[in-house]
Amino acid sequence: MADRAKTRQELAYASLRADILTGRLKPGEKLRFNDLCANYGVSVGVMREALSRLVEQGLVQSAPQQGFSVTPISRTDLAELTSARLEIETLTLRHAIAEGDLAWESEVLGAEHRLAGTKLFASDHPLRFNEEWTARHSTFHENLLLGCSNGRLRAIASQLRAEAELYRNWSLSLSHGEDRDIVGEHRAIVEAVLSRDADLAAQRLSDHISLTTSLLLAAAEQSDAHELS
Question: Burial of 66 by CB count in 10 Å (0-12 exposed, 13-18 middle, 19+ buried)?
Fold first, then answer.
């Protein structure tokens, strides 16, 4: 019985998180218990647990008398988040390059190869990321840093990337899927990693992270329907 309850909790959490990260639930959208429980087929208790976990990850916000909502996005928060990612992820990558072994290199190369072979967009929606691509993209960035022995650095980097998923999905809907050589960006990072060039790898990762922010801000300025606060 306990195992079934745990399974329901995990499924509700995973489904709700996926719907937020793929843009089905929009930034700032209210999350009403009755609707959520009906849509995901779970009890209030199960849904509350799922929402609490997402609050801890920064994907959902909770306010007294207002309930839960998908975390809204803002120009200030985007700038701070990008700055934090640049500091933490490039530092962690430098440690990974210094400390990672051949097995780590193989994991990085394999993750990049699988990601490059996965369709970017969902087959049923041209402005939504393919969920398999999203999962493999996350795995690729996780593997990049696995060579770092400092688990706390890796955990912080992972948390920041999870929060950035909202912005990445929003950038796609605003830019209407503008061409971007994401495969090339990832491959360039991996080439620098495999050559053990920490400075070049950190720069390429920094450029990769910064470009998403630049595209989002540029698209927002040209959009009448979407604005950053």
Answer: exposed
